[in-house]
Amino acid sequence: MAIAKMNKVYLIAHQAEKKEVLSILQQAGMVEISDLQAKGAGREPWAELVESDQDQEALQELEAGLTDVRFAMDFLNRHYPAKKSLMDSLGGSKAAVSVRELDASAVELAQISKDVYSALRAADDKLIALRNEETRLQNLKLQLLPWSKLEARLEEVRATPSARLELGALPAAELAACRDKLAALEAVILEEVNVDRGEAYVFAAYAASLSEEAQAVLKEHNFNKQSFHDLSGTPSENIARLDEELAAAAADRDSTLKSAGEQAAFRDSLHRYNDFLIIERDKKQAVASLARTSNSFVVEGWIREADLPVIKERLSTLETVEMVARAPLDGETFPVALENKRSIAPFEFVTKLYGTPHPYGVDPTFALTPFFIIFFGLSMTDAGYGFIIVALAALGLWKLKLGGGGRKIMWVLLAGGISTIFFGALLGGWFGGLIPLEPLFFNALDDPMRLLIYALAIGIFQIFIGMAIKFYTNVKEGKILDAIFDQGFWYLFIIGLLLLVAPGLGGIAKLMSIGGAAGLVLTQGRTQPTLVKKFLSGVLSLYNITGYLSDVLSYSRLLALGLATGVIALAINTMADVLPKNIFGYAFMVLLLICGHAFNLVINTLSAYIHSSRLQYIEFYNRFYEGGGRTFVPFRLNTRHIEVVPEWQEGTGS
Amino acid sequence: MEVIIEQMGLAFAVLGAALAVLLAGIGSAVGIGIVGQTAAGVVTEDPDKFGPTLLLQALPGTQGIYGLLTGFLILLRIGLIGGAGAAALPLETGVATFLAALPIAFVGWFSAIAQGKAAASGVLLISKRPEELGKAIIYAVMVETYAVFALLMSIMILFSIQF
Questions:
Q1: Are B138 and A570 an interchain contact pair (Cβ–Cβ within 8 Å)?
Q2: Is B103 in CB contact (< 8 Å) with chain A?
Q3: Would you call A228 helix, strand, or coil by DSSP?
Q4: What's the whole-model pTM score?
């Protein structure tokens, strides 16, 4: 119940057994391999004895294979998305394949994947070429469309030795002026073919001897020459031909896509091969972290103490493996794995959302679990909603094959739902009063002040627990004075202040608060060098009481969120109530109630979840938590599409 | 004159309800809009991020809900809905009800926009590091705290007024 005890482990074995060792480590998923190469480089005395053990070529080959498989999967997903059932997309039940099966089918899978890849790559290339061709045809068509009224054949609109013939466009507004000027030059014709969107499309003809003058006039009026060199026939003939070609290209594209779609049958094989390559690549990458001599190799890593015997046993089938394990040295940082009882392990999810605790710090999971559950319930405070959350979470756990994270969320929601039923029945209603049951304790809507005081009291209690944890760790580390000065005096001071309001305890309360304050003034500046500074720091430390005050006030959100749920539910009910009492009214009422309450439930569950988390991270952690740890990431089968069953689990039916 | 003052109480209370919904709602709409713009950009690159970005986009929406809630509570307390119909309110009660709406109206308005900006940055955070969704949410929720406090004060004032 806390941060797992870690051991540093060294494995030394003969090169011949390297593959087996890595396979066993990967399938066990218990050892985090440290990068000896990075660590040894130029610093450790042994660095000269060993050499890098990485096979760049093989690694690159695997990466290239992965890129190809991913291309094929992406192509299929883009054009032929896999049909997923709702359950699949929520939970995603993965096909289970044993390592042995996967290895045995590797050659076959590689062949399939290669064939699929080349087919799809060819199809993709063709699709790109077709797309370019279509764009080109479309552009040409757009260019030709304004000329569709021109009856001349395009190949005839050419320069001849004595005349110049041109097609071009100019702003329609300038057409008249341009024509007048050209008329002044003789032997020039300007014929309007079409006017479209302010552009006049014209046919111009002039004698070769006049070309300079004619061109000058045309240029002056923004004449834009258009040429259709390689086309023959009239524009409308050309447009008809382009339409045919476009239709042919579209048909070609459809048939290419359709024949590529036949490869979708191999999607499962692609998924398997993808995961096979990932496993192989991970092994090759792990090798790069090892150190080797000519005949042996060394693995350095971290392992949970509890897993040591398991790994020892698994490796015992090999002949040359020697394994040494030791506890971390004093102050040596190790990767952090959280270990909690099954009942609170799901709440590690809440812990990890914030970060990983320091290896020598405290795992806050056990402490935050009860508070999180209570806060969640108080933020909802509607028993009806509680039942729905419990039902949905139970359904999720029972019906969906969720991954580790998903299951944890469901468990957290289940616990939160039960708490919601509890606090809802005590203080709130059932669907905002839809089911008219009186609250068992008191109605929060009638007496919010009372609930506010309870909420703040829970806050004070949680902050005290946080201080107690710090007190305990201080004592454990032998810093008893720190525990008394930093936590003890604050306890005295705050409890004294709180008791001031209690009748009949005024004397003791005054004594406690003054004593606590005096203690703080005298001790909080103890790290300062001079006496004056010690005293000043001590006095200033009393200002921290505002921190405690604002932290406690922050718990008032529990009341606000609880009231919000109830009042919005009430609002939905009231709106439904004003509907007319006839058949349509009733139908709409049912619809409104279902949608409204579903919306309210979702929004408030989200709020309850995040605000309950926030109270842990900001108000609770503040008192004791030390972060900055690194999460334990064991070397394991890290597959995406299929669940690979390790050899030692085969036949256990999982 | 007498009649007008009699009517003013009710008018003030209704004005409060309207302002609570109005200002907090405007804030939420702007805040959600800000997140939506950023989210759409991120989803262009990676359509799989729709779910987490939608979650972040929903966060600045709560202020609007708090405003609606306060408005509804006011109408309920003064008897405009759910009761026997509006009775005339004394002027001071009406003004007090109006004032009760102000915390959530104004804090809701500005905090929703600020929260929208924080959530929009959160969207960018998860576009690079999808596993850090939790932290992105927490940043946005830090802002919401003040909307919750404002709602709390609005409700407390409202419940302490004798109708």
A1: no
A2: no
A3: coil
A4: 0.79
